[in-house]
């Protein structure tokens, strides 16, 4: 009962922060955002590019959530199976000397018994009785040592079988880990492919609408109302929104080194909401960080939003447009909590 | 000595009854080394006992102290070995609990694969629908061909994912089977450890009886022969 409860708690802890429901929810939102996008692509109007971007953002959010889930599952499995790497305890200390001591003592006692055995002197008979008691004690010790040796041999044999089974399980676990890590890589490849696909759709639509075709005012009016980027922030909103990632090679950062960081920022009616998920190289504590943030975009270059982690810890994140269109610097600070990453500063690349 | 035997018996019982998953306080390999050293120390003294005592008169007080010294060394090595066995049994128990909980978690995780396969199928169907729509759109606007190719590639990736999940199911079944074997082997080992602790408790008791008998014989030999004049004078 207690083991079952402990197991449940462990599972809840392990998957508490990034759940399957999280990415399933993101998947539904993505699929429901514009189910007719591809059907409308053939006769795309001016709003099509923005529609494709909106779907792209939801796809990126789903990809990020799914990757976070898979990444956590890999880390959890690695942690769970780590004990298989550990060799078993050494064999018990054997003491063949004990048997030798018993043999020599028994020999000495029996010799004395033979010497005293022919003498009828009462004193010597008394000594003989003590020798017999000692001899019996030695026989008992000998038997006990022999039983102990059998038990040691049985344990050694059991250890050998266990070691063989452990090595077999270790081999299987390594294969399973390799497959899981491959799945994680493939999830990233799928995410990139989706991003590229929606970019192609969006670019294609924009090229078409940018062509000298007279725009029908009625069509523009029919498009869903969207905030013009320039009216909210001094730079285009695309400098802040979308899916961003920490480059796996030569990434720039200050503070704890990221292993990976995925950031998704959405904008709706001038309001931002986003999610950051990352894993950092830390010597101790929890390397995983995940938080949501939201707030209004302001007419400033740098945007600051309030952060709240899944644990309820508060903080802020600053989005700083980078030196190139596809670069975004982020700077976050979170209330100190033991074992948690509290701050980070890094340059992300748009996916 | 009785305390020592009680300690070993309680240790044996305690190891069997203690709560699982608590990591052993001390690795048994360090205790094994201590036990080996204590056994070697005792062995040197025990092997030299008879030769040493043979050179003494029956009532020489050094006879008693020499036997007691070997007896104490024996007790020390048995305590050390008992501590080693207790730690090793605790490790075996901990390993067994870890193996069992890992197996439970892996069995649950294997069931998750089914969910992932269903998800991959769901995605595949959705993407095939998107692709069908885009193929129609591309007929009206051929410049969508690149996007269509990319979507076809994504559809292939998702189909591949579904196929790989099939393989993962087989791999996880093999892993779970191997983990079950480890748990069974660890259970057998723990049983063997318990038997070893029980045998060791008996052995400890027998050694105590033997040294008591050895000391009693020495005292009897002294009583029979009586102290030498020189010893009487000393007394």
Task: Please name the defining characteristics of this protein.
heterodimer; A: Lipocalin; eight-stranded antiparallel beta barrel; 9 strands; B: mainly alpha; Helix Hairpins
Describe the structure.
The complex is a heterodimer of chains A (351) and B (235). Chain A is an alpha+beta fold and 351 residues long. In chain A, 54% of the residues lie in helices and 20% in strands. Chain A has 8 helices and 9 strands. An 8-stranded antiparallel beta barrel of chain A has the order 1-3-4-5-6-7-8-9. Residues 1-16 and 211-230 of chain A have low confidence and may be disordered. Mean pLDDT of chain B is 85; it is low at 1-25. Chain B is rod-shaped, with a radius of gyration of 36 Å. Chain B has one domain: Helix Hairpins (Orthogonal Bundle), CATH 1.10.287. The chains are: A alpha+beta (351), B mainly alpha (235).
Coarse structural class of chain B: mainly alpha
Tally of structural domains of chain A = 2
Number of strands of chain B: 0
Portion in helices of chain A: 40-55%
**C-alpha-based Rg of chain B, rounded:** 36 Å
Q: Shape of chain A, please?
A: rod-shaped
Quaternary class:
heterodimer
Largest sheet of chain A: 8 strands, antiparallel, barrel
Strand order in the largest sheet of chain A = 1-3-4-5-6-7-8-9
Largest interface: A-B, 92 and 104 residues
**Shape call of chain B:** rod-shaped
Q: What separation lies between the terminal Cα atoms of chain B?
A: 30 Å
Short summary of the structure?
Chain A is of the alpha+beta class and 351 residues long. Chain A is built from eight helices and nine strands. In chain A, a hairpin with an 8-residue loop joins strand 8 and strand 9.
